[in-house]
Amino acid sequence: MSDEVLVEHIDGVVVITINRPDQRNAVNRAVSYGVCEAVDEMDRNPALRVGILTGAGGTFCSGMDLKAFLRGEVTRVEGRGIMGIARTPPQKPLIAAVEGYALAGGFECMLACDLVVAARNASFGIPEVKRGLAAAAGGLMRLPRVIPQRIAMEMALTGDMFPAERLYQYGLINALVEPGQALEEAMKLARRIMVNAPMSVAASKRVIVEQQDWALDEMFDRQEEITGPVLKSQDAREGAAAFAQRRPAVWKGE
User: Fold this and answer.
1) Other C-beta atoms within 10 Å of 218: how many?
2) Which of 55, 87, 132, 159 is geometrically suited to a Cys-Cys bond with 25, CB 3.0 to 4.6 A?
3) Active site residues
4) How far is Cα of residue 241 from the mean position of the Cα atoms in its chain?
5) What is the pTM of this model?
6) What are the residue ranges of helices labelled H in 45-125?
């Protein structure tokens, strides 16, 4: 893996750091494939439970490396989009820890994450229209599912940057922290998730993501396909036993 993406495993948490601070962590081919590889390893490895995506040097990600784009470099993963998560987010929870700027493709990859922790002074935007481009890495589709449509429209059509405080009010951000504290707070959030049963967490995420496309008359049947195995799992019995015995549960993920 390139040193432009740093990966650290900390007690079951995968911390993935985009490491191009001199380029404001702009995404080139190496970054896209590096993040993709780390996320895939998280999904494959049962010992890894939660991922955190962040950026080095006080910036999350400024989007596609336009110089690489002009050179003809493909900065996305084939069939999976930028960083390999824009089109196919991981099965396990992924938290964005945002300092500084989250712009363009960086903002869109943040939207592909499940939870967002951001510094109070962070700025967000999809400025592609200012460069003759369009936010086609998921931003135009995911953003209006998270915040009011007219606010999403304002962001998309003006290309202006929005402050963290405003987007927190619209529900885009889970937690606001002081500058420099986003990763630490994201780790705390990851640990809150990790005390829960792995199968339950994965199924809950999957239902929330997929239900947006379910018809009303099929919702519960589709949910049953996903949650049924969870209710029949060893972890379900362990959870009930641990509650009755007033002890911490010991999850096996099966």
Assistant:
1) 9
2) 55
3) 108, 128
4) 33
5) 0.93
6) 66-70, 105-112
